[in-house]
Amino acid sequence: DAGITQSPRYKITETGRQVTLMCHQTWSHSYMFWYRQDLGHGLRLIYYSAAADITDKGEVPDGYVVSRSKTENFPLTLESATRSQTSVYFCASSESAGRTQYFGPGTRLLVL
Amino acid sequence: AQSVTQLGSHVSVSEGALVLLRCNYSSSVPPYLFWYVQYPNQGLQLLLKYTSAATLVKGINGFEAEFKKSETSFHLTKPSAHMSDAAEYFCAVSGSYGQNFVFGPGTRLSVLP
Fold it and tell me: Per-residue DSSP letters for chain B?
């Protein structure tokens, strides 16, 4: 029972490069979420998805792109990474809106 | 719309002492309330949740929280702190009609020997 996994766990990249963070869940949950966690800002929602092919912006979507072609996967792409996108990124999933969210272990991203 | 405040970004207690982490919320609809714990370098783990059943909710690791509608509070308590309780704790609220989560800013709990 893998639950929700994220890859890679750690990533170092350079300014301007494209980076994709992967998220996979085995529960067939409808909803999936991407958050970033930064000191002093807590958890901030980047994007979320209510179902395959349905995505919507969260609090801080600029500079990020998401897709959801399959229910179980929700990749997050930084099209041109910037230093301000250095952060810890968490993926989460839930059965429906407002219900318990289950979190992945996170991806630590460093943009040089 | 929902919002959450957590009083105290950092709380220190001695081992064996009572743990009290405060959470107040606002919600325009009956809320669902959650407490999550985050250990260093890990993701968030659900401690307990309130979904309109019993107002006193028991969670994992000896934690419990009480929903008080009149005070719009959902404070987290544990009678006796253990060193392993040192972590970041997040309160969250969602709407029972399906509104999305809102997380509080978090409270870092330190447990002193």
Answer: --EEE-S-SEEEEETTSPEEE--EEE-SS-EEEEEEEE-TTS-EEEEEEE-SS-SEEE-GGG-EEEEETTTTEEEEEESS--GGG-EEEEEEEEETTSPPPEE---EEEEEE-
The pLDDT of residue B99 is above 70? no
Query: B46 vs A102: CB contact, 8 Å cut-off?
Result: yes
Q: How confident is the model at residue B59 (pLDDT cuts 50, 70, 90)?
A: very high
pLDDT: is A52 or B53 the higher one?
A: A52
Q: Report how far residue A50's alpha carbon sits from residue A66's, in angstroms, rounded to the nearest whole number.
A: 13
Residue of A nearest to B43 (CA): A105
Q: Could you report the per-residue pLDDT of A86-99, keeping only the tens digit for each?
A: 999 999 999 988 88
Which of A42, A90, A100 is closest, CB to CB, to B34?
A100
> Across the interface, do A97 and B106 touch by the CB < 8 Å criterion?
no
- Alpha carbon distance B93, B100 (integer Å): 8
- In chain B, the percentage of residues whose pLDDT exceeds 90 is 74
